[in-house]
């Protein structure tokens, strides 16, 4: 088990990623974007007040806004970080050599994934001081912060797994990137659109129930994030669909499934299919 | 030891490799000759476990490449014809990464890597980024990488391609050293005379089929069925032409274009018959000062073997 987590491939990935100037720029860009939003929010909310005061309700509001912006940033960065994981090596003509080493497909894929996620985690951790503004003014419990970060992590792993999968299946990084962004846009925007449209359709037919809004909403990280703050939306969706099972739980199950499936496919497709090991006897 | 049995690779209707049967004994340097797209790289990819064959089997040191790919990987050092390096690594780090990938402990790597760099003449570049190395240096670094786990079998796809003459000579010297270390080497190259000098055996592949294989001299002899002979005379050229035209195993007799004192013809006789022919010519009073056979090198062999093969 130890060799799976501390292995040469992961070591190499982390070294190369954190050594490049690009890696540093990524963190700068991330914090700058997030900081701008936080600062903008404080300026706007204190601009029209009598005194320059920042109330706990506003602090909670700011936390919500920051969380959504951070989710957008995660959804924006994860595909870019992962969709070239394998195809990039293939294009740089380093993959063949890597595949002739005894490093297993599992190690290579998991290492690629872990290194991308650790980079995203670094950005998230680097953004924590921004959240301290929120804590300074109150209104948000630590448990809310933890659950929010858990949602990020689950989303991140699923999108990263999809990115690695497409980069294994598709030879060209550019196409793999487009496909990964396409799927991400569908998960983040497409499912929200579908849920809203279908929700509207059924709202006028009080007697009928449909599980469709539930099915589309459980894929949407924004709905899940929102339900973490305010439960009215998910309550409504669950009422409309008549399903008692919590939306959050369905989200976790489905995203974990996506991750497992995508990682499994990547591992299987990294190397050519060989015959099964000869049975002894 | 490398062996392939009816090794075949098809891409749809295109056959890249057609029932290849090869047997390379331990310690042999085997040169693989063929035009681009003949199936050399396909064979190398299968032997390196990067490609699954459509049918047939291949063994490296007795391990089936499709059934025990992990064991095969531990026994081969593979150098592809085109390869990249991780630019952000320093030379030492580059080798260290692959050493670790082969499970070599850190303290052993620290001893091994300077030795390898010494072998490929890169000791002075050990702390440079791989990015700044010249093509020849990268090529040598890649060779050092393929040696890191001390494999018995080396699979080198065009190790000298794209190198300037000096870098090519350096590469050849390193390969000679590896040969003296007793490694089994499977090597492909476009540059045939270089292969001839180094290889114990060569195999010629065209359109996925092995058309000739054996020692360099035996292949040359196979093709020398029709030798080209040049005869230089001091006088009586016309008389000589009349004499040689009457001989049974001579064809395509002509005056040499460049030298008007020389005649050239194809001869299909054996070496013994050739001696008799010369004796007879001299005893017939021909003023021969030179009677020589044209040297054929591997280039000619290759052209002869692949003659009439459709390369399109």
Automatic annotation (TrEMBL), chain A:
Keywords recorded for this protein, A-Z: Membrane, Transmembrane, Transmembrane helix
A Pfam family per the record: ABC2_membrane_2
Coiled-coil regions listed: none
Transmembrane segments: 21-49, 61-82, 117-137, 144-166, 178-199, 211-233, 245-267
Recorded GO MF terms: ABC-type transporter activity
GO cellular component: plasma membrane
UniProt name for this protein: ABC transporter permease
UniProtKB/TrEMBL annotation, chain B:
CDD domains to which the protein is assigned, alphabetical: ABC_DR_subfamily_A (cd03230)
Occurrences of domain ABC transporter (ranges): 2-232
SMART domains tied to this protein: AAA
Keywords assigned by UniProt, alphabetized: ATP-binding, Nucleotide-binding, Transport
Transmembrane spans: none
Molecular function per GO: ATP binding; ATP hydrolysis activity
Highest rank taxon of the organism: Bacteria
InterPro entries xrefs: AAA+_ATPase, ABC_transporter-like_ATP-bd, DrrA1/2-like_C, P-loop_NTPase
Family affiliation: Belongs to the ABC transporter superfamily.
Protein name: ABC transporter
Source species of the chain: Ornithinibacillus bavariensis
């Amino acid at each position: 088990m130890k060799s799976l987590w501390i292995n040469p491939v992961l070591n190499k990935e982390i070294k190369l990623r954190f050594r490049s100037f690009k890696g540093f720029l990524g963190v700068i860009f991330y914090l700058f974007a997030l900081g701008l939003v936080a600062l903008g929010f404080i300026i706007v909310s204190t601009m029209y007040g009598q005194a320059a005061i920042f109330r706990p309700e506003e602090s909670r509001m700011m936390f919500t806004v920051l969380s959504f912006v951070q989710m957008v940033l995660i959804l924006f960065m994860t595909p870019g970080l992962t969709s070239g994981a394998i195809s990039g090596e293939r294009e740089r003509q380093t993959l063949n050599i890597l595949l002739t080493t005894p490093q297993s497909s599992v190690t290579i894929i998991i290492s690629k994934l872990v290194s991308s996620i650790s980079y995203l985690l670094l950005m998230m951790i680097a953004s924590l001081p921004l959240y301290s503004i929120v804590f300074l003014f109150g209104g948000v419990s630590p448990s809310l912060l933890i659950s929010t970060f858990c949602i990020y992590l689950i989303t991140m792993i699923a999108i990263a797994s999809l990115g690695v999968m497409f980069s294994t299946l598709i030879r060209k990084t550019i196409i793999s990137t487009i496909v990964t962004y396409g799927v991400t846009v569908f998960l983040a925007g497409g499912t929200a659109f579908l849920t809203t449209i279908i929700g509207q359709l059924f709202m006028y037919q009080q007697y009928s129930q449909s599980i469709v809004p539930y099915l589309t909403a459980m894929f949407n990280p924004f709905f899940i994030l929102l339900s973490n703050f305010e439960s009215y939306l998910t309550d409504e969706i669950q009422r409309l669909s008549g399903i008692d099972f919590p939306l959050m739980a369905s989200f976790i199950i489905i995203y974990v499934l996506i991750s497992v499936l995508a990682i499994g496919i990547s591992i299987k497709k990294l190397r050519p299919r060989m015959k099964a090991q000869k049975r002894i006897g | 030891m490398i062996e392939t049995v009816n090794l075949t690779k098809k891409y749809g209707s295109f056959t890249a490799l057609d029932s290849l049967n090869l047997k390379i004994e331990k310690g042999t340097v085997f040169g693989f000759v063929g035009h681009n797209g003949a199936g050399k790289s396909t064979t190398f990819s299968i032997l390196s476990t990067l490609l699954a064959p459509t049918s047939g089997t291949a063994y490296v040191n007795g391990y089936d490449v499709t059934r025990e790919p992990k064991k095969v990987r531990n026994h081969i050092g593979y150098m592809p014809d085109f390869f990249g390096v991780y630019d952000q690594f320093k030379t030492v780090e580059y080798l260290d990464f692959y050493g670790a990938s082969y499970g070599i402990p850190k303290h052993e790597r620290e001893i091994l890597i300077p030795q390898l760099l010494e072998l490929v003449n890169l000791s002075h570049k050990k702390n440079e980024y791989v990015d700044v190395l010249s093509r020849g240096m990268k090529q040598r670094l890649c060779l050092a990488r393929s040696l890191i786990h001390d494999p018995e079998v080396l699979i080198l796809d065009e190790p000298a391609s794209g190198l300037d003459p000096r870098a090519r000579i350096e590469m050849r010297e390193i390969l000679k050293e590896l040969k003296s270390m007793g490694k089994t080497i499977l090597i492909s190259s476009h540059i045939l005379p270089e292969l001839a000098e180094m290889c114990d055996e060569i195999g010629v592949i065209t359109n996925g089929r092995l058309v000739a294989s054996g020692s360099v001299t035996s292949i040359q002899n196979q093709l020398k069925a029709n030798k080209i002979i040049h005869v230089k005379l001091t006088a009586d050229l016309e008389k000589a032409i009349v004499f040689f035209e009457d001989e049974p195993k001579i064809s395509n007799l002509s005056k040499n274009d460049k030298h008007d004192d020389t005649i050239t013809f194809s001869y299909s006789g054996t070496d013994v018959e050739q001696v008799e022919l010369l004796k007879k010519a001299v005893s017939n009073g021909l003023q021969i000062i030179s009677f020589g056979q044209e040297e054929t090198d591997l280039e000619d062999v290759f052209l002869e073997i692949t003659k009439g093969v459709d390369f399109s």
